[in-house]
Amino acid sequence: MKTLLSLVLALAATTAQAHKPSDSYLALRVDGAALRGQWDIALRDLEFAIGLDADGNGAITWGELRARRKEIEDFALNRLKFNAGGRTCTTANTDFLVDEHSDGAYAVLRFDADCGAPPPAAIELSYSLFFDLDPTHRGLLRIERGGTTQTAVLSPDRPRFSFGAEAASALAQFLDYLREGVWHIWIGFDHVLFLVCLMLPAVLILKSRTWSPAERFRDTFWDVFKVVTAFTVAHSITLSLAALSVISLPSRLVESTIALSVLLAALNNIRPVVAERRWAVAFAFGLIHGFGFASVLADLGLPQGALLLALVGFNLGVEAGQLAIVGAFLPVAYVLRRSWFYRALVFVGGSAMIALIALVWLAERALDIKLWP
């Protein structure tokens, strides 16, 4: 009982994570002894870390950004180090720009790194941007060297990456994105709450507009199987299409629709409109959720070969993380399905709480306002 309540309340309490998790995009090109880099860092993350909105009007202008250029560059490059042959490479800023990603504006830092002559056989990168402020932050790395491209994901538990003349194996890159797929579904609270809303009534049966306990686990299992499969197929389709740049939708539209899907799924539990074909609801809204998952891979700008590897690994990671949630939730819910605790507190009360959170998310995303601190 405590396990199920803790899961529902933990998910419901995380309203601050209403948008895409914190990522930066670091692209490196190694040509002989020359190492050139471009680092895209979200303005919202920089605002939180060092403050950019000088007049406090909620909008960061180019003038405010330019006035803080040196502070931004020092803050970032002090958290990015290159080492080769036992010595630290020196870095120098070359340009400062602004670019738009799928989830908002980013500062673009361009720099050169000098690792000395002759060209080093291997370079170790050490990354610590925002790790002290946000343990969920990730650095998405792309390296081009000698006609090959390799990728990696930098995190608090994997802050270093070594690259040499030979690219990392395809398996290593695949496992990187597999892990990130698991991580992104676990911290993608809007996706998780949508899935939880669809699973909450799976241990119940609607009779005369009243929810009653299911009699057989087999029926519950197949109901969840259809819902999860439909959601998986749908978001896999749009994740692939969006990451391959076949289809593109505005970020605000995608994020607002995801919030709406959570709201409608929660309200459907309280006042059921769709009970028998919830798998169809999972499929329809899963198409939109796929665009939300795709933003990470699309913004990284991987070449076609590397993108396919990252896409497969990331998608399988999402499914693995999703199955872990189902495996933790379903057996406990089935055991408690006849209790007042589950039917009144978890099912109705949990759905009402999720609906309230989703309503806040919807207002924030659709109107571009901040209602929650």
- In terms of DSSP E residues, the strand content is 15-25%
**What's the helix-strand series?**
HEEHHHEEEEEEEEHHEEHHHHH
Structural class: alpha+beta
User: How would you characterize the largest beta sheet?
Assistant: 6 strands, mixed
Q: State the helix count.
A: 11
- Specify Rg, calculated over alpha carbons: 23 Å
Structurally, how many domains make up the residues? Answer: 2
Total strands: 12
Shape: elongated
Low-pLDDT runs of 5+ residues are 1-19
Which bin fits the share of residues in helices?
40-55%
**N→C terminal distance:** 31 Å
Could you report the average pLDDT, rounded to the nearest whole number? 85
Widest sheet, order of strands: 5-6-2-1-8-9
Task: Indicate the topology.
Blueprint (H helix, E strand, L loop, with lengths): L1 H11 L10 E9 L2 E9 H8 L11 H6 L1 H9 L2 E5 L2 E2 L1 E12 L2 E11 L7 E6 L10 E8 L2 E7 L5 E5 L5 H18 L1 H11 L4 E4 L2 E4 L3 H27 L7 H20 L7 H23 L3 H33 L3 H28 L6
Parallel strand pairs: 1-8
Antiparallel strand pairs: 1-2, 2-6, 3-4, 3-7, 5-6, 7-10, 8-9, 11-12
Labels describing this entry:
six-stranded mixed beta sheet, 12 strands, single chain, 2 domains, disordered N terminus, elongated, 373 residues, alpha+beta, four-stranded antiparallel beta sheet
Word description of this protein:
The structure is a single chain. The chain is an alpha+beta fold and 373 residues long. 52% of the residues lie in helices and 22% in strands. The strands form three sheets. The chain has a six-stranded mixed beta sheet with strand order 5-6-2-1-8-9, sandwiched between helices. A hairpin with a 2-residue loop joins strand 11 (204-207) and strand 12. It is elongated and about 80 Å long.
